[in-house]
Amino acid sequence: SLNIEKKTEILSKAYTDSQNMISLADSKANISLTIHSLLITIGLGFSLLSNLFEKIDTLIENNNPFAYFYIAITIIFIIFSISGIIATVLVFKPREAVEESEKDRKGLFYFGHILKYSSSNEYYSEIKKINEEKLMEEYSKQIYQLSCIAKEKFKFINYSIYLLIINMGLTIFFLILSNFVNFFL
User: How is 93-111 classified by DSSP, letter by letter?
Assistant: First the structure.
């Protein structure tokens, strides 16, 4: 069996790794949100600058089927853009306790649990009473909670990245298609 120092070291490493995974998810979400916004700016901004929507109106007036195809691509682009941004923003959404018993628990590590103590003196007296078994239990519960949070964050990051890849392709297609509108006028 491992001694208490080794157990504490292992749990401390797992706790730090879980915190780092949450930070990594947040960093990826920031990057993804920036790229999604950039793609929207490029895709729709280019269309506005080249008077593309006016040209599409002309195509509609001439009953050209290309106009409806372009409108469909634009709507799909907007839907994927908004979906990607929503998936990314959900990464930042605060998480609820995984287990019902965790909601009212007074813990030693997580600030939400610490704030359930009525004063800093009450928290300090709880710290003084901690023994090896209680320390292991607190670490284990907090690591589990952090791991569940990281899992949720990465689920939304993955959705966001899939949508981002699709959106990049749509943006490129959108820009190429924009160059061909003049041929149909």
Answer: SPPPPSSHHHHT---SSSH
